[in-house]
Amino acid sequence: xxxxxxxxxxxxxxxxxxxxxxxxxxxxxxxxxxxxxxxxxxxxxxxxxxxxxxxxxxxxxxxxxxxxxxxxxxxxxxxxxxxxxxxxxxxxxxxxxxxxxxxxxxxxxxxxxxxxxxxxxxxxxxxxxxxxxxxxxxxxxxxxxxxxxxxxxxxxxxxxxxxxxxxxxxxxxxxxxxxxxxxxxxxxxxxxxxxxxxxxxxxxxxxxxxxxxxxxxxxxxxxxxxxxxxxxxxxxxxxxxxxxxxxxxxxxxxxxxxxxxxxxxxxxxxxxxxxxxxxxxxxxxxxxxxxxxxxxxxxxxxxxxxx
Length: 307
Known about the structure:
Blueprint: H1 2-29, H2 43-52, H3 59-71, H4 86-121, H5 126-140, H6 143-157, H7 172-201, H8 204-211, H9 216-244, H10 248-253, H11 260-269, H12 272-300
């Protein structure tokens, strides 16, 4: 298992390098620059800024210098947020984003998988129709609609929860953002679990277990549950990365100081290093979570061996 994980990490390095290279050259190819404002800077000042950040060098030289810093763990300074490095900005927003993302992930799994199992076991019954109807709404209604509605109802009309801001250790500030992030995940997991369970229940080994007279609960726990969760685990890899790296809409609506806002702000401001830092962070997280998914596969399906 350790050898397999080591090989996968080594294989991920070229993939990460390609992602970094694509993001780097696309950012440089986009119109504008990090020091373009509504009011143009004097040419000598702009030239000094370009030289200070190494932007006067050929793009290949800039890329080589960036890779050298990346190897040392240096994501560079932010071009637009003075006196801050990219690592400091990510470090400031990461605890908030991780708290909300992890809570939404746990809530999504805790509700979505059981609801999907209930719907699959009660196929075409009222429970199945109810769960699938709610799941359809959860998928169809986007976050930028759900977030303001929740803030309006529970924050302004009822006054039960704060509508914006962040206080470390305050559970009340987590409720609305977590629910907003978790609702689509619950919907997707419920539909995915239901479809997977219906397929597994038609498998020959399940029919054999039924023919032997095993209790339906035993069949579900011992024989059907693990293969049912295989596609769910596959989906959770990128879904968890998306949740744990934050949602721009949710953070903007609820005024949260997370990392999600930095990506779009950096793109708008042409803050090259900030965008690159978010790309590296997001890509690394996806690669690690996909590795975790493959390792969990070996536990769910004994036929899969990681030697």
